[in-house]
Specification:
This protein has 266 residues and is an alpha/beta fold. It is 25% helix and 21% strand. It binds arginine (ARG).
Length: 266
């Protein structure tokens, strides 16, 4: 079965505000380079890995719409839409809602006061949905989603503003492997991860790799796509039977994002 992925061309992408420590309006993304980097990622996913890529129309004044991971968390044919914490990203909600509606998905809208940032903060591993909280997503959304969908949700506290979404430090892979960065989680969350994921399935990135957003990876079959990272990481992935694709996403790092943030499996 081919993976279906939602992406958004970076036509209006730029650093227009600062809502995470990676963003600095004085360090602008090089627009033509960003367009090239996005296209390279798109080509790897589409041509090398045979993904079926769907596109949402880019819109002016919502530069972060490119980060489709934050549209929603998917469950079967349902899209549980995000409720962005920052007012700068809230206008994206209606565009994502419209896209899901037009494309035959059932949309679920959370209460207005419930912050939740979609697959940026909620990722399936095994039979559970692992969900990050504090920086962007409120923990009350976890229980709500668990009851709504009848699924087991495991809450993980994120302790660093640098890794403000779960997908910046945690990436489930095929066969229940997990790439993650322990430094982004509190002690209890680390214990939860260690007791749920067997040690031979855990791929731990080091401080250097975490700073290249190595955990922000797209997994399709046995392929793992990341921003440029270390040889050490490639070696570990290959030892576990994965193929590693690297592509430079420097211009998206300036907004606090990399490969996985630019995609949403739908
Ligand atoms: N500038 C965006 C923000 O701060 C980046 C989002 C990255 N998305 C993600 N799923 N990690 O909201």
């Amino acid at each position: 079965m081919t993976d279906k992925i939602l992406m958004c061309r970076p036509d209006y992408y730029g650093i227009e505000y600062e809502i995470n420590p990676w963003m600095n309006v004085k360090v602008q993304a090089d627009h033509s380079l960003a367009v090239k980097q996005w296209k390279n990622l798109y080509d790897i996913l589409k041509n090398d890995l045979n993904a079926d890529i769907k596109l949402i129309e880019p819109k002016k004044d919502v530069p972060d719409l490119v980060f489709t991971a934050n549209a929603a968390v998917m469950h079967e044919n349902k899209a549980i839409l995000s409720r962005f914490k920052h007012q700068q990203r809230q206008p994206e909600e209606k565009y994502f809602a419209g896209w899901f509606q037009q494309n035959g998905y059932e949309i679920i809208t959370l209460m207005e006061d419930m912050n939740f940032e979609g697959a940026g903060d909620a990722l399936y591993l095994g039979n559970s949905l692992y969900a990050g909280y504090v920086p962007r997503t409120g923990i009350s959304s976890h229980l709500y989603i668990s009851e709504l969908l009848g699924i087991h949700v495991i809450s993980l506290e994120l302790i660093s503003d640098t890794f403000y979404h779960l997908d910046t430090c945690f990436c489930p892979l095929k066969d229940d492997y997990l790439i993650y960065y322990p430094g982004a989680f509190d002690t209890y969350a680390n214990k939860v991860i260690e007791s749920n994921v067997p040690s031979e399935k855990r791929i731990i990135v080091n401080d250097e790799e975490s700073s290249y957003f190595t955990c922000n990876a797209v997994n399709i079959g046995d392929a793992v796509v990341t921003n440029l990272t270390t040889k050490r990481f490639t070696k570990i992935l290959e030892e576990k039977g994965f193929r590693h694709f690297q592509t430079d996403l420097s211009e998206f790092m300036k907004a606090g994002g990399a490969a996985k943030c630019l995609t949403l499996k739908i």
